[in-house]
Amino acid sequence: MKCLLLFLCFFCLITVITAIFESEGGKRNQYSSSSSDEDSNYERRKKKKHHHHGRPPGNGNGGEGNGNGGGGKACPSDWMTFDRPQGRWCVKLFVGTMMNLAAETRCREMNATLTGLQTDAERLKLAEAGRTIMLQNNYGDASIWLGAHRKGSCPSAQMCYPKETFFWLDNHTTGNEGFGWATGQPDAGTRGAWGVQSCAHQFIFSSGTTNPRWPGIIHGQLDDQYCQEGVVDPNIKMYACGRKPF
């Protein structure tokens, strides 16, 4: 009987000890699992904190470009600037007694071309620039070669409206507002082998708006001219080169 009681006591003791160890092990496993989850969440938060979205900060100049219209270039300081809807256009005047084709060749040597005039404002601005040059050189009257040519469909006077008779050649100027012709122009004069007046120039007077030598023409207005004419009518000539900013 004593042996049976001892056996039962020993069995109960083993059962209690086993239960205690299992309870402690569960707590350790629970702590380990919780700690692992917290470590994992910490790593995810850390990565998220250091992850950048979008582009890096700019340099204060609006990203690309140089602060001038998002990458737009400015004309050199010694060139006039015409701001147009289709883009900026640079124009510079030069003195040179030569025919129209020679003037165009001079412009191309500067990677430019004889310019057109898109608006009346541009036409008047060019006229005043021409007057400044005339006063500096004591000229009385002069004209400026422009990049315009008579349309083949308008070979004689009054076949087309004045503003529809010529077109601009520089591949940048648009519209016909800049064709500020003098009264009665373009009159499509003709001269032997030279044919019809197919080029255009702008009259410039050193003072006032008119000149007795050129009745009916106002300072800054346009006139059609023989492309081959290089030394007279008037004898002082200039040419206006135009190009995109560079």
UniProtKB/TrEMBL annotation:
InterPro entries: C-type_lectin-like, C-type_lectin-like/link_sf, CTDL_fold. Residues 44-55 have a biased composition (Basic residues). This is C-type lectin domain-containing protein. Residues 1-19 form the signal peptide. The keyword Signal applies. Residues 57-71 have a biased composition (Gly residues). The keyword rRNA processing does not apply. Residues 27-71 are annotated as: Disordered. Residues 75-242 form the C-type lectin domain. Keywords: Signal.
